[in-house]
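Figure 6 in text form: structure in, sequence out.
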């Protein structure tokens, strides 16, 4: 049976205020609040929800609002013009001055127990919707200041260059000066990056920035339309001077503008080159937590498949004990993983192969010598590959998902094929955002896959 540990607070366990009111509503003292809507729950986006399903950005359960159509307003700490009566007792002051305008965080105004309960319900509700009963561990949360990658927008305006995340549900821009969830080195680099973008971009132009904190320093990747570039021929010395100590490599649409050291990440104790645009887990501590869960679940399997392996986040960790066959469609990532595995001491053999597992999933026959698999697909999940795993002789599948909804869908496929779900672990590495990672192992007895083929079983176990 799923459980929802809300730090022993009933509101966190249910997502609602325990009082029940109608459209007229009453406040805590029993005073009538005619013409208002009571917020009774939080939806997956972190918005308050009324009894008739309307949503209000920034509202919390127990509060009353006059016009849920005020959903475009994002004023989390000040008095709302449309809120009636007192704020909820679990409303707290945001950590960051940009909370009301930044597109990254939606939940800094929630007390810790409310926040943890809301995050945990992303998973339990997805499982309930699929009629799955899977035990769920407590929420693991990343520490503040730990996010090592940010995707930002730069704009060269009349008043100077602004850099920030896209404003929430709006087309306006703001200029980021702080970020409590980001690695401090990323925030420290913003001044130098504004200067770089001021030289590169024409007036009124915009660019997409990807900023990554690596083992060697920060890496800046700039993507912009050609017509928006004022000076593509900036010399290495100019960029190096502008970046100072904050950026070890800067690229523009894939071309290296400046570099002082080939950027790399530390993954499972190995130094892995970082190709431009390759996927990385957002928080190193979350990565380590997920690696530990995956390795524990696959212990004892001599040959393991790593599907959607990327740079080898799980390949290199598992290869300490097992031979690994790794697959991903990202050619530069496969090359980087191959080079790393070839030179890293203490690893079992690793074979990394480029393959699009969405269009060409591994067939059951190709999995015949593999008994354990770790699978870390994008948000869309891996429906076709999961069906193939269900028909194979694989005995352990560890799913690492960044979308509880597609996780639940694919989990139902495995359970129907005879797998038993172990404890699901919710991992909160994108603090204050609606996003949630899930790690869960599925096991079945040897040979069950072949016997189960063609049989139908209910996914509710």
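Output sequence:
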């Amino acid at each position: 049976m799923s459980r929802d540990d809300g730090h022993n607070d009933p509101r966190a366990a249910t997502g609602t205020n325990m009082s029940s009111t109608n459209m007229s509503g009453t406040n805590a003292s029993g005073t009538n609040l005619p013409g208002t809507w009571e917020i009774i729950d939080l939806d997956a986006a972190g918005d308050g929800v009324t009894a008739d399903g309307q949503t209000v950005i920034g509202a919390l359960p127990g509060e009353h609002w006059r016009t849920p159509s005020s959903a475009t307003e994002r004023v989390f700490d000040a008095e709302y013009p449309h809120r009636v009566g007192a704020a909820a007792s679990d409303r707290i002051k945001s950590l960051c001055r940009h909370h009301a305008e930044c597109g990254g965080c939606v939940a800094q105004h929630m007390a810790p127990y409310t926040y943890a309960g809301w995050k945990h319900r992303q998973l339990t509700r997805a499982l309930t919707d699929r009629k799955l009963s899977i035990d769920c561990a407590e929420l693991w949360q990343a520490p503040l200041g730990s996010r090592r990658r940010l995707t930002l927008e730069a704009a060269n305006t009349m008043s100077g260059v602004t850099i920030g995340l896209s404003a929430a549900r709006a087309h306006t821009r703001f200029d980021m000066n702080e970020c409590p969830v980001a690695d401090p080195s990323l925030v420290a680099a913003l001044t130098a990056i504004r200067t770089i973008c001021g030289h590169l971009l024409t007036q009124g132009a915009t660019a997409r920035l990807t900023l990554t904190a690596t083992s060697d320093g920060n890496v800046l990747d700039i993507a912009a339309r050609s017509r928006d570039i004022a000076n593509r021929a900036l010399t290495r010395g100019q960029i190096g001077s502008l970046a100072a100590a904050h950026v070890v490599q800067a690229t523009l649409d894939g071309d290296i503008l400046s570099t002082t050291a080939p950027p790399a990440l530390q993954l499972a104790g190995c130094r892995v080159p970082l190709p431009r645009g390759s996927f990385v887990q957002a928080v190193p501590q979350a990565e380590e937590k997920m690696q530990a869960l995956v390795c524990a679940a696959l212990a004892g399997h001599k040959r393991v498949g790593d599907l959607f392996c990327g740079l080898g986040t799980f390949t290199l960790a598992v290869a300490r004990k097992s031979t690994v066959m790794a697959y991903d469609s990202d050619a530069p990532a496969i090359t980087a993983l191959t080079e790393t595995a070839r030179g890293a001491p203490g690893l079992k053999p690793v074979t990394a192969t480029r393959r699009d597992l969405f269009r060409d999933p591994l067939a059951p026959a190709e999995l015949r010598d593999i008994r354990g698999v770790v699978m870390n697909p994008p948000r869309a999940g891996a429906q076709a590959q999961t069906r193939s795993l269900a028909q194979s002789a694989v005995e352990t599948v560890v799913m690492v998902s960044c979308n509880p909804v597609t996780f639940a869908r694919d989990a139902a496929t495995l359970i129907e094929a005879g797998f038993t779900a172990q404890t699901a672990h919710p991992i909160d590495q994108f603090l204050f955002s609606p996003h949630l990672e899930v790690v869960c192992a599925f096991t079945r007895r040897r040979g069950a896959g072949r016997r189960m083929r063609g049989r139908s079983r209910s996914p509710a176990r």
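Caption detail: The two ends are 9 Å apart (CA to CA).
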